[in-house]
Amino acid sequence: MPPPDAPPVTDVAVLDALRPIVDPDFGKSIVDLGFVKDIRIDGPAVSFTIELTTPACPVKAEFERAAQNRVAALPGVESVQVAMTSNTRGRNTDAGEPKSAVLPGVRNTIAVASGKGGVGKSTTAINLALALRKSGATVGVMDADVYGPSLPLLTGVNGRPRALEQRILPHEGHGLKLMSMGFFLTDDSPVIWRGPMVHGLIRQFLTDVDWGELDYLVIDMPPGTGDAALTLTQQAPISGAIIVTTANDLSLVDARKGLKMFEKVDVPVLGIIENMSYFTPPDLPDRKYYLFGEGGGRRTADELGVDFLGEVPIDPQIVEGGDAGDPIVSRDPDSPAAAAFRSLAGTVARKLAVLAETAPPIADASITWVTNPS
Questions:
Q1: How far apart are CA 162 and CA 81, in angstroms?
Q2: Which of 138, 145, 256, 315 is within CB 3.0–4.6 Å of 222 for a Cys-Cys bond?
Q3: Are 307 and 301 in contact (CB under 8 A)?
Q4: pLDDT given for residue 302 in this prediction
Q5: CA–CA separation, 374 vs 372, rounded Å?
Q6: Per CATH, which fold does 12-86 belong to?
Q7: 3.40.50.2300, 3.40.50.300, 3.30.230.10, 3.30.360.10: which CATH number matches 106-358?
Q8: pLDDT for position 189
Q9: Taking the chain (374 residues) in consecutive chunks of 10 residues, what is each chunk's mean pLDDT?
Q10: Interior CA angle at 249 toward 299 and 260, to 5°?
Q11: CB of 154 within 8 A of CB of 327?
Q12: Largest Cα–Cα distance of the chain, in whole Å?
């Protein structure tokens, strides 16, 4: 029981107790950011909600613990109930703004790219998507590599998608909405297309697929900086791009090219992920063997002035899971590789939330090109 002379608990006292909790990305108090909502006081019982900018917030548990302890320390408080919710920030979140004609229900569009093939870009894309999904977000994956689509293999999902009222319905697998050119092909179908045909297909995936409401759409970009990649950067309202590389010099040279492509079209580069970074033998868990060199991704990020998002270790289960349609985040969620993808997903989600608050609205991708009359 509270002491008889304890002052009554007030909303102001609760907010003052929570004010020292600072969001590390925004650099402001969760109170000043408006994250604290629905304060209810019933005598010595206090309840409130902390609404985060993304369900993938890596400090969610820390916020909850700090809020619980601070409010419980107030005189007169006997019990505290903290509800942790999220409202993903991104494009199309302001009620007063018209929605874009391209991907109207998608709050954030993440391009996962590489300067060259063979660095694990598609594997990174699907596992990042799964990590975001497991945090509670609604997520889709668009396989934009029209010449070498890999999404059917990586997810174990196959077959031609259905259509309803002239809209293509994406497949669903692993809790994700999925679309790939591979769903329309047989295993031995050659893909021999010229630029205008590629442009048309990508446009169709962006405008004719019923993606619905998504917190994140992860786009597995075609490797390199050719027609397909350029079309996507011009057509899709990309919130931010991730560059996947390995530590060897050739991959890093190509990663620089991919990064420069996004800069040319004013797409924010969220940072660089170094895949297949090191190998740890099962019998030597404290050892790391850097088979492709050490620190190349971080050095490249520093040289180019972008963030280094992190490393993903080599794990044979990543390959085995990819071949079996069971990505590592689902196949072995307790593995170091799955933990790396969850950490990366949290970092990416937080960076997108900050961009959504600080950057101007993304331009509508429906652009009509005109010539200047002479």
A1: 45
A2: 145
A3: yes
A4: 87
A5: 6
A6: GMP Synthetase; Chain A, domain 3 (3.30.300)
A7: 3.40.50.300
A8: 57
A9: 68 95 92 94 94 87 95 94 90 54 89 82 95 95 85 92 90 95 71 60 86 95 70 83 83 76 86 91 87 84 89 91 92 94 94 80 40 40
A10: 65
A11: yes
A12: 85
Residues 6 or more apart from 6 whose CB is under 8 A from it? 75, 76
- Taking alpha carbons only, the member of 284, 106, 330, 304 closest to residue 207 is 106
Q: Residue 225: what pLDDT?
A: 59
Q: Give me the residue label for tokens 């609205």.
A: 361
- Tokens coding 246: 């390995």
Distance of CA 120 to the CA centre of its chain: 17
Q: Looking at the chain, which residues constitute the CATH 3.30.300.130 domain(s)? A: 12-86
What's the pLDDT score for residue 194?
Answer: 53
Q: What is the pLDDT of residue 364?
A: 42
State the SS3 of the chain.
CCCCCCCCCCHHHHHHHHCCCEECCCCEECCCCCCEEEEEEECCEEEEEEEECCCCCCCHHHHHHHHHHHHHCCCCCCEEEEEEEECCCCCCCCCCCCCCCCCCCEEEEEEEECCCCCCCHHHHHHHHHHHHHHCCCCEEEEECCCCCCCHHHHHCCCCCCCEECCEECCEEECCEEEEEHHHHCCCCCCCCCCHHHHHHHHHHHHHCECCCCEEEEEEECCCCCCHHHHHHHHHCCCCEEEEEECCCHHHHHHHHHHHHHHHHCCCCEEEEEECCCCECCCCCCCCCECCCCCCHHHHHHHHHCCCEEEECCECHHHHHHHHCCCCHHHHCCCCHHHHHHHHHHHHHHHHHHHHHHHCCCCCCCCCCCCCCCC
Question: Where do you find CATH 3.40.50.300 in the chain?
Answer: 106-358
pTM to 2 decimal places? 0.85
What pLDDT score was predicted for residue 373?
41
The reported pLDDT for the residue numbered 143 is 92
